[in-house]
Design goal:
By secondary structure, the chain is mainly alpha-helical. Helix 3 links the parallel strand 2 and strand 3. Strands 3-2-1-4 form a 4-stranded parallel β-sheet, sandwiched between helices. Helix 2 packs across helix 7. It is globular, with a radius of gyration of 19 Å.
């Protein structure tokens, strides 16, 4: 999709807006900076680049392999080194294996449950490091994912800051080009890395281009619009606060 589409906001102005916002919230919290997961994908690369511009060494990147494609960790390392971002690699595969083995012994895990544990284990790791280093956890989710529920509940949606939450995927890509991120990362097929060969678009059943256009101006093929609205409805619980029972009992 061309970045000249009418619904793609100026990437330079968007980047500056996010940078001011990040600086303000971290200062208000009295934190030393942020920690973010580096997946080797577009969104995490943009978050990392913006964070480094604001916090310099206060921005810490975590590369967290968890029975995942080694190429993703290599791409994450490429981004960190290109940006000069302090980073650590924490291998989560042993912890994942022990945890899922214990669960399987009680109730056999479904493939999707097993995949989502990876995202939740990574978030546990991010919060452990953030708390230990006086940083805030910076999430990487964008508007396109949020609207369709394309995230793991209590996984990659759990963070202190969501700088890309108001941006369509095409806008994130435009900011990536504005920031001079590697073209390989910008054009890499989006994937949550939940299993081998998994891609966002393959799982959703439509492209991000189609999704962004529908979210921005309501324009999509009827069958695509139905799929998007079905995902919105199915994932509504992910966007709402946890419900609780209000006991209206007379004293």
């Amino acid at each position: 999709m061309s970045v000249n589409e009418e619904y793609v906001r100026d990437p330079g102005k968007a980047a500056a807006c996010i940078e001011r916002w990040l600086a303000s919230l971290v200062e208000r919290a009295g934190a030393k900076g942020i920690v973010a997961g580096l997946s080797g994908g577009l969104d995490s690369a943009v978050v990392a680049a913006l964070a480094v511009r604001v916090f310099k060494d206060g921005a810490l990147g975590l590369i967290m392999p968890c029975r995942s494609d080694p190429a993703d960790a290599a791409d994450a390392l490429l981004v960190a080194e290109r940006l000069g971002m302090p980073h650590r690699t924490i291998e989560l595969t042993p912890a994942f294996d022990v945890l899922t083995s214990a669960m399987d012994s009680a109730v056999p895990l479904s493939d999707m449950a097993r995949a989502n544990i990876k995202a939740r284990l990574r978030m546990v790791t991010l919060y452990g490091v953030a708390q230990s280093t006086s940083r805030l956890v910076c999430g990487t989710g964008n508007r396109s994912e949020w609207e369709t529920g394309y995230f793991t509940k209590h996984g990659d949606d759990s963070s202190d800051l969501l700088p890309l939450r108001d941006l369509l995927k095409c806008e994130v890509r435009a900011i990536a080009r504005f920031l001079g991120l590697p073209e390989h990362i910008i054009e890499k097929p989006p994937s949550a890395g939940l299993w081998t060969g998994q891609t966002d678009e393959g799982e959703m059943g439509f492209s991000y281009g189609e999704l962004d256009k529908y979210l921005a101006i309501g324009n999509a093929a009827p069958e695509t619009a139905l799929k998007i609205e079905a995902l919105r409805a199915k994932s509504e619980h992910k966007r709402l606060p946890v419900p609780y029972c209000k006991c209206k009992i007379e004293l």
